[in-house]
Amino acid sequence: MSSPCDPEYAPVGDIDAALLVIDSQLKAVYNGRSGPDPEQEQMVNQLTASLGPGGVEALVDGACTLIYMFMSWLRAACEEQDEDVIAHVVPSLVASMRMMPMSFRPEVIPTMTGLVVAAGTGLSPNLWRAQYGEWTGAEMTPLEATAVLLADHINRLAGDDHDFATRLITDALSRADQD
To answer: Which top-level group of life is the source organism from (predicted)?
Structure first.
């Protein structure tokens, strides 16, 4: 039986824009800066300034799609090791969130954890979240940071390859374009 949160019913959103934002944040983290590279920040600012109301929604949907894709990759990697993806990812993710009170206020941690669990069990994170109403402004930074934390987790699993998660997505998008 199909779930109303099945990914086939979910909007994909603007994955390219979401990946640009996430990649910019990853580069800032890896370069030891508290913010993105000024050139990257300018690109992200231009991108977000060009978005209309539908563009912001597409960016949010794109971030949720990234979370889904990251968790799908992590689920496959965990299954190869006979591990449960939820047990592997969620405890360290929640611990990281709790250490970042400026990005993750305590009240958004359950929602972001729920997004990750939904994606880890094969459900669409954005459709799962939609059950509880509209996105709030207070959830935007945690949503971005959740995608960054998952990408960083993947990069560390790939031997500290700082671009692995980004390549994972761009390769998947390239294959989808070819099909």
So the answer is: Bacteria
Q: How many domains does the chain contain in total?
A: 1
Q: 135 Cβ partners below 8 Å, 6+ apart? A: 60, 129, 143
Residue 5 domain flag: no
Rounded Cα gap, residues 103 and 69, in angstroms: 22
Q: Is-contact 149 97, C-beta < 8 A?
A: yes
Phi, psi of 75 (to 5 degrees): -60, -45
| Whether residue 52 has pLDDT greater than 90 | no
Structure tokens at 100: 């970042």
* Other Cβ atoms closer than 10 A to 162: 17
Task: Work out the average pLDDT over 1-30.
Answer: 89
Report which residue type is found at 2. S
Q: Is residue 4 part of a domain?
A: no
Structural domain of residue 21, as residue ranges? 10-178
Query: Residue 16 — left, alpha, or beta (φ > 0 → left; ψ -120 to 50 → alpha)?
Result: alpha
Q: What is the pLDDT of residues 96-107, one digit of tens each?
A: 999 999 889 999
Return mean pLDDT, the chain. Answer: 90
Q: How far apart are CA 110 and CA 138, in angstroms?
A: 13
pTM score, whole prediction: 0.90
pLDDT at 113 over 60: yes
| Residue 68 included in any domain | yes
